[in-house]
């Protein structure tokens, strides 16, 4: 098969040619946009799931829906070592630019820009350096507001900034949508401030929504930051695709290139990928390149599988494994051994300690380091699980 015509797209956050299995989420968000723009209350949204299930792809697709409805949008990717204030200012600035040019009152636009500038200027110097602020400056052609979004209290300042920005969008009959990827990496105090601001904005009925995406423990982290967070957001668990949707992700793009699959080939692809979207694209791409002609056969899939596994071992699994320290690698190998035969389900930290013949307290630095690096997560106290599907299988195969 012609590799130039290969219709599959394995990549971090790269939208596949067929966004299969996410129709329900897209329709629900369209309803949210319509309701909020018309002044009806609705909840912001949080997507959670393992790595490789397409959270970022879905986040970007939701943003596209907002753009099509002329909303102002902005997006950030949270980092554990970065304060939230400046990245949020950048995202809000992008959203304001998308609506400001349609506004009939330039003075009102400048007033909101002044509030945004005041908010951004409250960023501490160390946080500006960490965020690489030299590449971005708040609006320079307006005077920073005084006494508005500049108190230094993040929650209070966000409420005032969100209120003014949402009001600007309301004048046009639209809203503001802010998208936060890797939301679990926001520090707890700032996560609480963001929740508090969203709560206040929701009570005001202001046309502003926040859409977050993160690892499976994100809902628990939000609930820990603010007790009402479980009612503040609508939570969507983004998971692997059922077989019919995975087959759709393979067959529809292939059909655009006048190619088909034999049923046995599709069955084997699903067995190998378990329906995880990143694997669906990765195996689909390699299988296409291996196949000589259409229809693509079971033999093509079997020939492609080792190459696909090798590519994943380097780019998807290996890159993450290499980030871990020796002690952290020992911890993950123990998790993999304990998870064999269970689909790499969560294991207890006590069992990991017993297998390594160590005291649980002595393993806390390794566990905490893995959590900080986003390699494992703890959905319940005393348990850990991999953030990456098939990671245990990969580790067991390295022996």
TrEMBL record:
<dbReference type="Pfam" id="PF13191">
    <property type="entry name" value="AAA_16"/>
</dbReference>
<dbReference type="InterPro" id="IPR041664">
    <property type="entry name" value="AAA_16"/>
</dbReference>
<dbReference type="InterPro" id="IPR027417">
    <property type="entry name" value="P-loop_NTPase"/>
</dbReference>
<feature type="domain" description="Orc1-like AAA ATPase">
    <location>
        <begin position="18"/>
        <end position="211"/>
    </location>
</feature>
<protein>
    <submittedName>
        <fullName>AAA ATPase-like protein</fullName>
    </submittedName>
</protein>
<feature type="region of interest" description="Disordered">
    <location>
        <begin position="1"/>
        <end position="21"/>
    </location>
</feature>
């Amino acid at each position: 098969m012609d590799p130039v015509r290969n219709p599959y797209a394995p990549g971090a956050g790269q939208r596949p040619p067929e966004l299969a299995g996410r129709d329900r989420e897209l329709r629900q968000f369209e309803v949210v946009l319509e309701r909020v723009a018309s002044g009806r209350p609705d909840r912001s949204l949080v997507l959670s799931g393992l790595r490789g299930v397409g959270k970022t792809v879905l986040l970007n697709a939701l943003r596209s829906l907002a753009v099509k409805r002329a909303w102002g949008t902005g997006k950030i990717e949270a980092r554990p070592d970065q304060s939230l204030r400046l990245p949020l200012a950048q995202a809000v600035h992008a959203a304001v630019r998308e609506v400001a040019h349609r506004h009939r009152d330039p003075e009102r636009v400048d007033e909101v820009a002044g509030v945004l500038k005041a908010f951004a200027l409250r960023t501490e110097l160390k946080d500006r350096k960490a965020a690489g602020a030299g590449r971005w400056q708040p609006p320079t052609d307006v005077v920073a507001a005084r006494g508005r979004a500049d108190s230094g209290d993040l929650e209070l300042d966000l409420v005032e900034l969100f209120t003014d920005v949402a009001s600007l969008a309301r004048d046009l009959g639209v809203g503001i949508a802010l998208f936060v990827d890797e939301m679990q990496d926001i520090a707890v105090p700032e996560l609480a401030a963001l929740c508090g601001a969203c709560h206040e904005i929701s009570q005001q009925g202001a046309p502003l929504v926040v859409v977050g995406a993160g690892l499976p423990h994100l809902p628990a982290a939000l609930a820990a930051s603010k007790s009402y967070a479980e009612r503040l957001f609508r939570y969507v668990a983004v998971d692997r695709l059922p077989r019919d949707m995975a087959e759709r992700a393979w067959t529809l793009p292939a059909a655009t290139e006048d190619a088909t699959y034999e049923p046995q080939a599709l069955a084997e692809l699903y067995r190998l990928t378990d329906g995880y979207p990143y694997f669906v694209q990765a195996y689909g791409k390699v299988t296409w390149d291996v196949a000589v002609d259409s229809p693509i056969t079971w033999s093509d899939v079997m020939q492609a599988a080792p190459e696909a596994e090798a590519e994943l071992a380097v780019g998807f699994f290996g890159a993450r494994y290499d980030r871990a320290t020796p002690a952290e690698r020992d911890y993950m190998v123990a998790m993999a051994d304990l998870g064999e035969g269970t689909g790499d389900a969560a294991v207890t930290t006590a069992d990991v300690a017993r297998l390594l013949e160590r005291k649980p307290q002595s393993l806390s630095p390794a566990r905490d380091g893995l959590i900080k690096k986003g390699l494992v997560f703890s959905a319940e106290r005393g348990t850990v699980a991999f953030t990456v599907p098939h990671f245990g299988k990969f580790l067991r195969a390295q022996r």
